[in-house]
Amino acid sequence: MADTFRGFRNLRSAAASLLKKLKNRRFPWLGPLAGGLIGLFGGAAGVIIGIILGYLIRELFGQFKSDRDLLEYLVNPGQSNFSEPDPGMAAYCALGVIIIAKSLQARDRRYIADGSETALKPVQISAAESFPNGGDHAPELEAFCRLAASKADMLNADLLAESLAARRLPFRDQAYLGQQLEMLAFGPGIETGYYIRTLLDPDYSGGGTHENASREIHTEADPWLILGLDPGTPRHEVKSTFRKLAVQFHPDSLQELDKKHQEDAARAFITIKEAYRQIMSQRDSGKQPDPVYQQSSRR
């Protein structure tokens, strides 16, 4: 037992002696080693931060260049250096901005120049529904409309319509897109909407200045004229048109307008709903049969 305790004391003395020697010994390499390790870690962090900053700068410059190329195209349509989810989508949005800007009263056009989301929302919705990939690219549509609105006074409807028609030539849907654009028009913009539609569909002769002007919203108008449709329009197209007009004139979508124009929009919204109710009632009663159902029943 005494030998065991003696062994422990000797071990403890040896350990204390070793620690004392290490404590009193100098390590000239310790400082450079610590500095090197700190520099190594600092350098690695610097490299990572540099890569991240470089990526962000590249993205910012890339976005700036894309916006610049898009603005150049919108002002002077021709060969483009920007990408769009579907060919002609930027031109479509620009034409929609022209129609909305014309439809709004002069003192309300500031909402277009300011890129108001409320004023441009109908154009974005129309584009999303009119192009195959529109619904999956809301940010791009928002950018197209916003940039077009910033140059609203410099947009040329003839050149944009020509460019849109050329880009959609392989798809042969220019007439359909013209119809969708015309649906955005109201009030003072009806004539502009009609004109743009004729640019995209030269064979269209659905009204003109005097006849098409009857599309202005008023309670005594024919319900088909209120919705801007022909009496033979299929039910699904009637519903689609009603939804677009309802969104366009819904009071919640026009809260940025002054009180007078909000009241006008509210009356127009009620008129649109009443016109839709009358058309659906005619269809349901058989007074105005749905052409789609008529064709299917004859087969």
UniProtKB/TrEMBL annotation:
Name the coiled-coil region(s).
Answer: none
Region described as Disordered: spans on this chain:
280-299
Could you tell me which species this protein originates from? Breznakiella homolactica
For this UniProt record, give its keywords in alphabetical order, as a comma-separated list: Membrane, Transmembrane, Transmembrane helix
UniProt key word RNA-binding: no
* Location of the J domain: 222-297
According to the record, the segments passing through the membrane are 29-57
Please state what the protein is called: J domain-containing protein
